[in-house]
Every structure is written in structure tokens, then in C-alpha cells.
Specification:
alpha+beta
């Protein structure tokens, strides 16, 4: 049996406003690849892109980055209404992803079809999604 120390990557240290920090990557050796059987409930990932208005100050953007949950909450009703018209509802057991960019931000949410609604999007498996990311 291998030891955890055999899987450790390089260690990094730094200084932040809260104090000193140390970071180290851990690798995992898996015998079986991640495989998606394609069975089960179909889920949809919706990605919404937003641009910052020209009058938004840099301090406000930094505040939003520091308070992501509060920032998402200001958009939650709009997103729920937007998804409702497509017959979708947000999966409450998965947190939304909020990514900030230079000119705006992106919110990704995991959704499922509402009860009694058919969603006619072509399902795909994890293997098909990650095919485009494989190195050649």
C-alpha cells in the first residue's frame, strides 16, 4: 500500500491579509477511470453570462468577489424565473458556480426538469463532454 507522502506535489507558501498560508497538492491514484453509464436522471447545466455596467467601480467588483453568496442571492430570483420558462428548476443540493472575468461574470447552475415537463435537450455523458479536452 502506498503512502500519502508519495502523492504529494510541491508545497507553496504565501502571505495574505489574514496571515501566512501554506498550500500543497495531493494526487490520487485511481485504478478505474471515471465512467458515466448514461443512466439516471438527466440534468442540465445552464450558464448565464453578465457584463459589468460601465459605471461599476472596482471596489464594488471586489466586494462582490468577497461575498459571492450574497452577490448570487441578488440574481437568484431572476435566474429562477428565467429557468422556469424553459421548464427547469435549480437543484438546491448543488451550489451555483460564480466566475468573475475582466468585463463581467458567469453564473453556472445545475438544473433539472420541473415535474411534468419534458426537456428536449440531447443528453450526453461525461466521457463525451471531456473528449474535447484530451491532450493529443
Amino acid at each position: 500500500m502506498e503512502r500519502v507522502s508519495e502523492y504529494k506535489g510541491e508545497e507553496r507558501k504565501g502571505i495574505s491579509p489574514e496571515g501566512l498560508w501554506t498550500e500543497q497538492e495531493l494526487a490520487v491514484k485511481a485504478g478505474d477511470p471515471l465512467a458515466d453509464s448514461g443512466k439516471g436522471k438527466s440534468l442540465v447545466i445552464r450558464v448565464l453570462d453578465f457584463k459589468f455596467e460601465s459605471n461599476v467601480k472596482q471596489a464594488e467588483i471586489q466586494c462582490a468577489k468577497n461575498n459571492k453568496q450574497e452577490f448570487f442571492n441578488t440574481h437568484a430570483k431572476y435566474i429562477r424565473d428565467f429557468l422556469w420558462k424553459d421548464g427547469l428548476k435549480i437543484r438546491e443540493d448543488h451550489d451555483p458556480k460564480l466566475l468573475f472575468r475582466k468585463n463581467g461574470y458567469r453564473i453556472a447552475v445545475l438544473c433539472e426538469a420541473r415535474l411534468g415537463v419534458n426537456v428536449f435537450e440531447k443528453p450526453t455523458t461525461l466521457q463525451n463532454i471531456f473528449k474535447g479536452f484530451t491532450k493529443k
